[in-house]
Write a structure and sequence with these properties.
Order of helices and strands: HHHHHHH
Largest sheet: none
Radius of gyration: 35 Å
Structural class: mainly alpha
Length: 261
Amino acid sequence: MSENKTGKPALPAGRYFKYAIGEIILVVIGILIALQINNWNNNRIDSKREAGYIKNIERDLNNQIKAIDRQIDFEAEVADYCKIALKSYTETNTLKIDSTFAVVMGTIASRRTFLNPNPAYIELISSGNIELLKNENFKDQLINYYEELERIEKVIDGNNSLYTDQEFIPTVLKLGVIDASKEWENISKSYERKFSSPNPLTTENMERLMTISSKLLKNEENELLFVNHLASREGYAMVHLLLLTEFKIQTKEILNNIRDY
């Protein structure tokens, strides 16, 4: 200051270059840190979404177990009732047409649609969010599971439509006699309002119809058609039972994997 030199001394060019490099490095580090924070935040959001999908799929699979159990119960009842309907024929080569037979036919001549409650998986696939699942093995297992579920649903619905609706029921209506009151009772259990479900046919009506059915089934052609249909109806029910029993095991396995996941 005594010599009037108050300005900063000039820095060598090399020092300027070092300062510039240092500033660039700091900026790059700042950008990298920001990107890392952004990636961490995105990963956290994706993990949260993934957990939400897993939770909803677990809910759907628990509902699927219930749907499988209901279908198994129905198919088992159909198979058992077919055996009851064919019991006298197996023993005497004669169909016993009575009130028990009419009630049995009421169940056999009905069918149940196999439910496929999987909204979470449908949304996961349609949105493209399947990639949120980080475990590749689990992802493949989930996709294979729902492909198998779709296949079983098509098999059961196809058999119901092509055989039960178009072949079996028309034959029963033509040659047999049906008391569907038991089925109406089962249906009405699902509703809060109670419905009466008596058979609209009186006892006298039923006696006459059973007599007519017995006469029709004494015709060998009708007998052959009716017995073959009863045996086929049991066969379809048994196939459905096998598919559903195996699929229930798969559903429980994937539920266990989800809990581990």
